[in-house]
Design a protein that fits this description.
Number of domains of chain B: 2
Helix content of chain A: 40-55%
Shape of chain B: globular
Shape of chain A: elongated
Oligomer: heterodimer
Largest sheet of chain B: 8 strands, mixed
Strand order of the largest sheet of chain A: 2-1-3-4
Radius of gyration of chain B: 22 Å
Distance between the termini of chain A: 73 Å
Largest sheet of chain A: 4 strands, antiparallel
Largest interface: A-B, 17 and 18 residues
Distance between the termini of chain B: 56 Å
CATH superfamily of the largest domain in chain B: Adenosylhomocysteinase-like
Number of helices of chain A: 3
Helix content of chain B: 40-55%
Structural class of chain A: alpha+beta
CATH architecture of the largest domain in chain B: 3-Layer(aba) Sandwich
Strand content of chain B: 15-25%
Chain lengths: 178, 437
């Protein structure tokens, strides 16, 4: 079915509420009589305060969500970039079988081909034949960690291990109440 | 200051335990080396020798290395081929504290780096060379000529390296004494022949699982390696064609019942092509283009110049790595070529090289040659600088003798009467130097 509505006009139209229309929003229960004309204004002001407060609360909650969204977006991006980098590293030329847990050194030949070597630039010394791009550790999940990021990764690993241990201990050291 | 040299460089040190198990089995299959350990384990004739070795870092070589050490030598090792290292063998040797620089799948640059690491023993340079193919010999001559004065001898394992030594001898560029181990009868007539007879087909089978029976195989070159290769292919039921440049070898092949023809004529008929010439430019671009679809092409000669792999890489429209050391190229014609071990030694690249027993013959010669040059030659009187020698016949016979018991061989002894009749000592040597076996 075709949508006959002209573009740009959704069903919902935002209503602008100016201060002079304040009392338009306040209504007494049908059938009740106005005792005091100020009652309606006070009611209107009260509603306004509630509106402001709700808006503030919503805004505050939304801000937190927005921050989380930004952070998740950043993590997602980082995750994609790491996956791309890991894939690229796995596709670098290599004549030997790579062993998880070991450090490998990435070089670039004059032809543009990148390849992994077991030899560090220090081991090559002055005879290093190709441009050194970086040192990576092949992790047991077959992802790569840049040598410079190793201390942080190891710190994280230690933390995770600690958490797992605590969890296990909590589960395993149940002592019945005496 | 240059950084300290790595203690060793191997693919995976955790393979050491596996390597050690295989070394123990290999020791039982290498009676020649083990008897040298028993004979010289106490007197340690190689005490003081600093041997740099450049030879396929396999399980069998590990037994050689530990024999040299048992005889008192300090040893440092690299492999003489970028694909031939058995990583578990290298790891097993590395954990014993022996500096070894070798892994399967080195680049050409890494290969030379590995060879170079074996030259300095701490502050002291090598004083003996044990080589296979001549790369270490050439490296020291060209890049470290000042060390040549301190080198008491070179022992060379293979045909190609021996050619190199004789060339250097003729040109006057050989700066040490050398022993040609390759041409000991118990080396080339055994390792090259019986070794290849088992390891060629093993390499082809591991790489391709091809059915050999009924196929046409071309073996280029009918030397010892070609003879072993042709014999095993025929034993599996291949129809074997041979190409040769030497009329004597060509006639030998013909007398064995092989069709002898040229590579150009044989190649289009062949399903499997094996080069074993030790020469260059055997399988040329023209030959590649004349082949049937999915012809298997491999080399069992020492160097990778027999097959024009560079042309394939540059001109194939597609190259698919089926698995390491097995590449399938598609040519412009649509035909495919299956190339094994990138044109390098197929038995070591796609298999595990020669079996231990036959290598015991070769390596017992190597060890005896090292003892000769180290103990009998401090003044270069017996073995002169710039000359290439062979081991005396008695030692060659001794190497064979050491391998008989294992096979249950009962040797006949000449009676004094027979000995006198023949004019041959009861304990040998039994044959004159010119005898060809």
């Amino acid at each position: 079915m075709e949508n006959k509505e002209p573009a740009g006009t959704s069903g919902i139209v935002a209503k602008k509420i100016g201060p002079h229309l304040l009392t338009d929003k306040a209504h007494l229960v049908e059938g009740s009589k106005t005792k005091n004309p100020d009652d309606l204004i006070e009611l209107a002001q009260q509603i306004q305060r509630c509106d402001d407060s709700i808006k503030a609360v919503a805004s505050s909650k939304l801000r937190t969500i927005l921050e989380q969204m930004r952070s998740l977006q950043k993590q997602a991006q980082q995750c994609l970039e790491e996956a791309k980098r890991d894939a690229e590293l796995h596709h670098a030329a290599c004549n030997f079988k790579k062993i998880p847990g070991k450090l490998y050194y990435l070089y670039k030949r004059k032809s543009g081909q990148t390849y992994f070597s077991m030899l560090s630039p220090e081991e090559w010394g002055v005879g290093c034949p190709h441009e050194f791009l970086g040192c990576y550790k092949l992790e047991f999940d077959l992802t790569w960690t840049l040598f410079e990021d190793l201390p942080k990764r190891e710190e994280d690993n230690a933390m995770i291990e600690k958490l797992i241990k605590q969890q296990f201990n909590a589960a395993l050291t149940y002592e019945p109440a005496t | 200051m240059a950084p300290a040299k790595a203690q060793y460089k191997v693919a995976d040190i955790n393979l050491a335990e596996f390597g050690r198990k295989e070394i123990e089995i290999a020791e039982n299959e290498m009676p020649g080396l083990m008897s040298l350990r028993r004979q010289y384990g106490e007197s340690k004739p190689l005490q003081g020798a600093r041997i740099a070795g450049c030879l396929h870092m396999t399980i069998q070589t590990a037994v050689l290395i530990e024999t040299l050490q048992a005889l008192g030598a300090k040893v440092q090792w690299s492999s003489c081929n970028i694909f031939s290292t058995q990583d578990h063998a290298a790891a097993a040797i590395a954990v014993t504290g022996t500096p070894v620089y070798a892994w399967k799948g080195e680049t050409d640059e890494e290969y030379m780096w590995c060879v170079e690491q074996t030259i300095m023993f701490g502050d002291e340079p090598l004083n003996m060379i044990l080589d296979d193919g001549g790369d270490l010999t050439n490296l020291v001559h060209e890049k470290f000529p000042h060390l040549m004065d301190g080198i008491y001898g070179i022992t060379e394992e293979t045909t190609t390296g021996v050619h190199n030594l004789y060339k250097m001898m003729e040109n006057g560029t050989l700066k040490s004494a050398a022993i040609n181990v390759n041409d000991s009868v118990t080396k080339s007539k055994f390792d090259n022949l019986y070794g290849c007879r088992e390891s060629l087909v093993d390499g082809i089978k591991r790489a391709t699982d091809v059915m050999l029976a009924g196929k046409v195989a071309l073996v280029a070159g009918y030397g010892d390696v070609g003879k072993g290769s042709a014999q095993s292919l025929r034993a599996f039921g291949c129809r074997v064609l041979i190409s040769e440049v030497d009329p004597i070898n060509a006639l030998q092949a013909a007398m064995e019942g092989y069709e002898v023809t040229t590579v150009e004529k044989a190649a289009p008929k062949a399903n499997i092509i094996v080069t074993a010439t030790g020469c260059t430019s055997i399988i040329t671009p023209e030959v590649f283009q004349s082949l049937q679809n999915d012809t298997i092409v491999c080399n069992i000669g020492h160097f990778d110049c027999e097959i024009d792999v560079a042309w394939l890489n540059a001109n194939a429209v597609e190259k698919v790595e089926v698995k390491p050391q097995v590449d399938r190229f598609k040519l412009a014609s649509g035909n495919h070529i299956i190339l094994l071990a990138e044109g390098r030694l197929v038995n070591l690249g796609c298999g595990t090289g020669h079996p231990s027993f036959v290598m015991s013959n070769s390596f017992t010669n190597q060890t005896i040659a090292q003892i000769e040059l180290w103990t009998n030659n401090k003044d270069f009187k017996v073995y002169k600088r710039g000359e290439v020698y062979m081991l005396p016949k008695t030692l060659d016979e001794q190497v064979a003798r050491l391998h008989l018991d294992k096979l249950g061989v009962e040797l006949t002894t000449l009676s004094p009467f027979q000995s006198k009749y023949l004019g041959i000592p009861q304990k040998g040597p039994f044959k004159p130097e010119y005898y060809r076996y």
